[in-house]
Task: inverse folding
């Protein structure tokens, strides 16, 4: 099921869990609004992770915590510190990419 | 993308009291059990759920520096392997089956045991060794991984499990 959601002045399409269905609709403002919903205050470290996730998504590389830990962008410990309530799924939502299905 | 869930399972809701903490007890040393335990613990952390593992009896093999990279899958007495018991006992059979399983795991981006323990520690999973089992196997703390959070009795472990949204799981 796809739903339409309005962030500020922008209208985007999301799935029922609030993940953007099209990365091209994403803007930094939308990322900020989603981060607010998730209770995350964005810093440069957060945005570095978001940029990396989007880049990987465009290259169609499946994401996992293990790969992110090896990316050099952020360590696993820092990743959990940045997004404590679920690093991979919350950062993916802010990044406007699909929810990863990885178990690791 | 094919790796995307479009109509997923139930969402977390506060009125249904979502799980807050997973307390896993690992009592076996076969690699399939060890991975099951680690994936459950790690999966909990990925969902923002606290997790702790209590290594007891043969589960202690998974946190012994010298043994953790040499765990095996059981080829005898394991109907899931579909190897006749007589063949499963042949020399090298267990090592071969283990090698096959490890290579399949690596393809799925599942790390070896040592690296998995590092990921768990970095994720905030608490790793505890059972005092009684350590005494039984004559193990000292220096035999165990550096990331270990401590040695506990079963009573200590239960105390850590308090709270009405905690689940305990024996593997």
Result:
């Amino acid at each position: 099921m796809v739903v339409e959601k309005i962030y500020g002045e922008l209208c985007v399409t999301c799935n029922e869990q609030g993940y953007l269905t099209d990365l091209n609709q994403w803007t930094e403002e939308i990322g900020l609004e989603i981060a607010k919903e998730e209770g995350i205050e964005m810093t440069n470290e957060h945005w570095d992770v978001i940029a990396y996730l989007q880049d990987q998504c465009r290259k169609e590389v499946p994401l996992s915590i293990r790969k992110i830990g090896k990316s050099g962008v952020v360590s696993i410990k820092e990743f959990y510190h940045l997004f404590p309530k679920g690093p991979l799924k919350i950062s993916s939502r802010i990044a406007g990419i699909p929810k990863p299905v990885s178990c690791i | 993308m094919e790796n995307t869930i479009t109509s997923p399972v139930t969402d977390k809701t506060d009125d249904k009291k979502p799980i807050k903490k997973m307390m896993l007890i690992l009592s076996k040393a076969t690699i399939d059990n060890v991975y099951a335990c680690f994936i459950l613990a790690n999966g909990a952390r990925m969902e923002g759920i606290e997790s702790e593992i209590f290594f007891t009896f043969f589960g202690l093999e998974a946190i012994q520096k010298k043994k953790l990279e040499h765990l095996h899958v059981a080829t005898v007495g394991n109907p899931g392997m579909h190897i006749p018991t007589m063949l499963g006992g042949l020399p090298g059979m267990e090592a071969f089956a283990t090698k096959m399983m490890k290579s399949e795991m690596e393809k799925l981006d599942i790390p070896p045991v040592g690296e998995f323990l590092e990921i768990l520690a970095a994720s905030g999973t608490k790793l505890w060794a059972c005092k009684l089992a350590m005494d039984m196997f004559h193990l000292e703390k220096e035999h165990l991984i550096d990331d270990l959070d401590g040695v506990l009795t079963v009573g200590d472990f239960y105390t850590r499990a308090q709270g009405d949204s905690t689940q305990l799981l024996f593997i």
Notes: Chain A has five helices and two strands. Residues 2-95 of chain A form one domain. Chain A touches chain B at residues 1, 15-17, 60, 62, 64-67, 69, 75-77, 80, 84-89, 98-104 (CB under 8 Å). Strands of chain A lie at 2-7, 10-15.
